[in-house]
Amino acid sequence: MANQTESRKKDHVNLVVDKGAQYTKTTGFERVDLIHNALPEISLFSVDLSTKFFNKKIHYPILITGMTGGYQDAEKINKSLAAAAQKYGLAFGVGSQRAMIEKPELVKTYKVRDVAPDIPLLSNIGAFQLKKYPVDQIDSLVQSIEADGLAIHLNALQEVIQPEGDVDFGGVLAAIEKVCDKLSVPVIVKETGAGINQEVAIALKKAGVKYLDIAGAGGTSWSIVEYLRGEGVPGFEEWGIPTVECILQCRGVLPLVASGGIRTGIEGAKAIALGADMCGAAYPFIKALQADELDSFIETFQKQMKVCAYLTGSKNLSDLKKAKMRFL
Ligand SMILES: Cc1cc2nc3c(=O)[nH]c(=O)nc-3n(C[C@H](O)[C@H](O)[C@H](O)COP(=O)(O)O)c2cc1C
């Protein structure tokens, strides 16, 4: 029998894929132009955007952010996405492992190392769960899937709209600090689409967090997802800090993954030039997977990033980080 967490995870994937559940508000990337270099003085073929993430080499600075696990079909989704990450040299995160705390045999729906032995792999748990479970148990989630890091997700917006959601964020920062201190792997804290601002980024850095995924507004809206699932305090469809604003606020505080509404490699390249170290996305990967277009989506995304590097005269990621921009 599926428990509540399992059926919720299944609803989320189905609703997002079928209905979209995207913000009307934009990320802000449409107001950022990379400045064209008419004389790039490099060959497109010499552009190399490889980098290291969680101490592992990847070919492109792209993270497929955590989405699923914990119900039968999720096993296939995680394995397909992870295998693509292995094939194209990207990083990958599984979705919340809460379901397997409640039902340990669900671990098989998160395990991907057989198809993705070399990639940076992230475990995932909600910040609320850290208050409930000891660090040893959280560590066993990481170990059970041989992950390189733990992504702790912040989803206050989603929980407050969800009829059965947790609404007491008191003590979450202290719980994050404890996990950072005792866990066997580094911690990345991510939002889920409503964004992280500078004040929060600084507090997380002080707590011992090593990376941030700012997951700003402009892509998947978790309030819309929850409205599609049922009742909730109305009016919060557009709540959240746009992705570009999050990058500008958080750059320099910690190594950054920029995500939330990134749909093309051009937006990914803009995110890097704005100050992120990696770009990431969830929705377009699951959408492409379900449409049987995952390979072509990733190939196009990578080519777009490479062409942006070429047309700004950037041979590598550190050049792309310094690419000139104009705000429209
Ligand atoms: C179907 C789906 C399920 C998700 N489940 C999780 C999850 O379990 N844990 C998590 O940290 N984020 C989860 N997310 C949030 C994403 O990782 C991401 O932060 C957010 O969707 C914004 O990125 P996007 O606009 O590219 O989708 C999920 C996203 C999608 C689309």
What order do the SSEs take from the amino end to the carboxyl end, as H and E?
HEEEEHEHEHHEHHEHEHHEHEHHHE
The radius of gyration over CA amounts to 19 Å
Assigned CATH architecture? Alpha-Beta Barrel
Top-tier CATH class: Alpha Beta
Which runs of at least 5 residues are low in confidence (pLDDT < 50)?
A: none
Domain FMN-dependent dehydrogenase: 176-324
Family: Belongs to the IPP isomerase type 2 family.
GO molecular function, one term: FMN binding
Main location: cytoplasm
Description:
The chain is α/β, with parallel strands linked by helices and 328 residues long. It has one domain: TIM Barrel. The chain has 14 helices and twelve strands. The chain has helices spanning 4-19, 72-88, 98-102, 127-132, 135-144, 156-161, 172-182, 198-206, 222-229, 243-250, 265-274, 283-290, 294-311, 317-321, and strands spanning 32-34, 51-53, 56-58, 62-64, 91-93, 121-126, 149-154, 187-191, 211-213, 256-258, 278-281, 325-327. The protein has an eight-stranded parallel barrel, surrounded by seven helices. It has a two-stranded antiparallel sheet with strand order 1-12. A two-stranded antiparallel ribbon has the order 2-3. Helix 11 (265-274) packs across helix 13 and helix 12 (283-290) packs across helix 13 (294-311). The chain is globular and about 60 Å long. The N and C termini lie far apart (53 Å). The model has no long low-confidence stretch (mean pLDDT 96). The protein binds flavin mononucleotide.
